[in-house]
Amino acid sequence: MTITYTIIFFILGTAFGSFFTVIGLRLPKKEDFIKTRSHCDKCKHELSMLDMIPVLSYLFLKGRCRYCKAKIDNLSTYMELFTGILFALSYYIFGISYELGIALGIISLLIILSVSDITYYIIPDEVLIFFSGYFIIINTLWKGLPSALLYIGSGIALFTFMYMIMMLGNFLFKKESLGGGDIKLMFVIGQILNPFLGIVLIFIASFIALPISFLILWKKHQNLVPFGPFLLISFTFLFFTQINMNMIIDWIKSI
Ligand SMILES: [Zn+2]
Q1: Which partner from 55, 114, 136, 208 sits 20 to 30 angstroms from 254, CA to CA?
Q2: CA 201 – CA 205 distance, rounded (Å)
């Protein structure tokens, strides 16, 4: 039974991944993402349902447009696969539970914001507001109002902490160091993690971002690196491993 449901979650994930990519690509450009049909970037031919089956269409069409044979950007296919795997993994690990609701929210946020931050260096406010609401509602329903309010406090604390890091960064480097989107994102993350874990998350994110930033700087000669995806990858990691404060304190003590 678990296997059947895990497969269903994988298929659901690929469909959602396709939708999330469209949101991530269109929302920052203020394009409609529900009514407007997708089309080929090269020949502008409208895509039919058959061209939009997650992952499978890409495999059957061998990565080319059915009408003009131009190569299709494979970002969407990667995101569909990745979302499918993470959705399946979430169900497999957590079953139907509070954690599953949270995990699916985190993955959705990860995919949408990574697409928009990598493509445009933009983290759309609409997405942050939607997921803040989503997490606050789940917290209130499952953990009660007092707990939900505590997490809102945690969000404000992390927002403030990130804001201070930005001020420090701007002062040290004499240029804009962090985007406003990264700071607002910390409020959303605070709805799940307490401030202590939130700060651990910022450290982990910086630790992963540093070597990759050097690589981008070296390969592409650009010094603008989106930080949002690193925050979200660390967030996903911390949530899936269910690392808590006591584990980190024990680990620090053992060193
Ligand atoms: Zn085409």
Answers
A1: 208
A2: 6
Cα angle value 10/125/134 (rounded, 5°): 50
The model's pLDDT over 119-169, given as tens digits with 9 standing for 90+, comes to 898 999 999 999 999 999 999 999 999 999 999 999 999 999 999 998 998
At 79-134, the pLDDT tens digits run 999 999 999 999 999 999 999 999 999 999 999 999 999 889 899 999 999 999 99
Q: Element (H or E) spanning 241, and its range? A: helix 228-241
How far away, in angstroms, is 58 Cα from ligand 1 center? 13
Centroid of ligand 1 to alpha carbon of 65 (angstroms): 5
Please state the domain extents for the chain.
Answer: 1-96, 126-255
